[in-house]
């Protein structure tokens, strides 16, 4: 008799990292439940990408939650603040950029934890990365470790002896390595989007931090980025 697959909740933004993370969870044999957020982000084109990626991988269920972080603002992604453009990679990691959304991963993980407890799914996957990232404090290993500890203290399931595990398979990988891994797991990167400041049609700017890191990752793999850009850019 075939053993029933363990359930896992995957935080899915529709970008390179979260799509590869979903592919890893599928490869490891989990029954996957994807969770995305419409939180007032200027790049809400990512919701369509997340829906397409979830369908492509045949997740068991995909929920898109509406939460209003735009009411707080404080970020170039949720407020009327220009998105930084054409920065060098060293400059990106020199400080915490204005594209940081206050407490975003803490909020996202809290919703994922709530759904996971209902599903009796004790595995949560998030595509955070501590190498090719833009200085975000909630992408660090020590943050994930602390959140996991809290999750097991703050839930009925944890108190009753179940152990939640937050999986971060990409946390020590470069963007190039993430893309290579995704290609090996048949991720269709043409379905994904990364840009912080896309056009109304969804075309990527090619100049924000997210676009620059993505393009660099594809270039290092020697392949063309399939994302549509506002001008002729070859990945």
Explain what this protein looks like in three dimensions.
- The protein has helices at 16-27, 45-57, 89-92, 104-119, 141-154, 156-159, 175-184, 209-220, and strands spanning 7-11, 31-38, 61-66, 123-125, 165-167.
- By secondary structure, the protein is α/β, with parallel strands linked by helices.
- It has one domain (7-194): HUPs (Rossmann fold, 3-Layer(aba) Sandwich).
- The protein has a 5-stranded parallel β-sheet with strand order 3-2-1-4-5, sandwiched between helices.
- Helix 1 runs parallel beside helix 2 (45-57), helix 1 (16-27) packs across helix 7 and helix 7 (175-184) packs across helix 8.
- The chain is globular and about 55 Å long.
């Amino acid at each position: 008799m075939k053993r029933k697959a363990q359930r896992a909740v995957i935080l899915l933004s529709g970008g390179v990292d979260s799509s590869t993370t979903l592919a890893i969870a599928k490869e490891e044999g989990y029954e996957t439940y994807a969770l995305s957020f419409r939180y007032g982000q200027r790049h809400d084109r990512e919701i369509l990408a997340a829906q397409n990626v979830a369908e492509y991988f045949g997740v068991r269920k995909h929920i898109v939650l509406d939460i209003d972080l735009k009411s707080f603002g404080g970020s170039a992604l949720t407020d009327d603040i220009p998105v930084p453009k054409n920065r060098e990679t060293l400059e990106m990691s020199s400080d915490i950029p204005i594209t940081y959304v206050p407490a975003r991963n803490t909020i996202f993980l809290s919703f994922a934890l709530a759904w996971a407890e209902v599903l009796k799914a004790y595995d949560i996957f998030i595509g955070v990365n501590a190498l090719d990232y833009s200085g975000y404090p909630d992408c660090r290993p020590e943050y994930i470790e602390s959140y996991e500890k809290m999750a097991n203290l703050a839930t009925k399931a944890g108190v009753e002896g179940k152990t939640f595990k937050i999986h971060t398979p990409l946390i020590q990988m470069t963007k190039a390595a993430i893309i290579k891994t995704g290609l090996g797991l048949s991720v269709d990167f043409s379905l994904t989007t990364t840009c912080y400041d896309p056009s109304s049609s969804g075309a990527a700017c090619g100049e924000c931090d997210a676009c620059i890191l993505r393009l660099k990752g594809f270039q290092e793999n020697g392949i063309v980025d399939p994302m549509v850009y506002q001008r002729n850019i070859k990945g």
